[in-house]
Write a structure and sequence with these properties.
Hypothetical Protein Aq_1857, Chain: A, 2 helices, 40% strand, alpha/beta, 3-stranded mixed β-sheet
């Protein structure tokens, strides 16, 4: 098994804010998931008007080649191809009058589409 685990710190491929971790853990627990093993999968996929978009889902365990980042109690699974696009990013949870949701602040983005749903590096 080649799964790499990074516990927080500045070397992590992705930084997870406390609010993002708290909300993800709350959602996972509400679905009956074991948060000691399960995690949030963060990935990049083809799509959107700018070419790439983010995807997120809960997985019960990491794949063999995933990087596993644990910050603020949340395990984040990232496949090797996605790491190339999201290294150095911050996963945030934002709430407000226009709706709440997870947001990726990615320093590698050179342009985004008008609606902010897709990007190009």
């Amino acid at each position: 098994m080649s799964t790499e685990t990074v516990d927080g710190g500045t070397d992590a491929a992705v930084t997870v804010t406390e609010s993002a971790a708290s909300e993800a853990l709350r959602l996972m627990e509400s679905e009956g998931m074991d948060t000691d093993v399960a995690g949030l999968r963060l990935f990049v996929q083809q799509g959107g008007c700018a070419g790439l978009s983010y995807g997120m889902r809960f997985d019960h365990e990491p794949e063999d080649d995933d990087a596993v980042i644990k910050q603020n109690g949340l395990r984040v699974f990232i496949d090797p191809a996605s790491q190339n696009y999201i290294g150095g990013s911050t996963l945030q949870f934002e709430g407000g009058l226009q709706g709440a949701g997870f947001h990726v602040e990615n320093p590698n983005v050179v342009s985004e589409c008008g609606c902010g749903e897709s990007f190009r590096t």
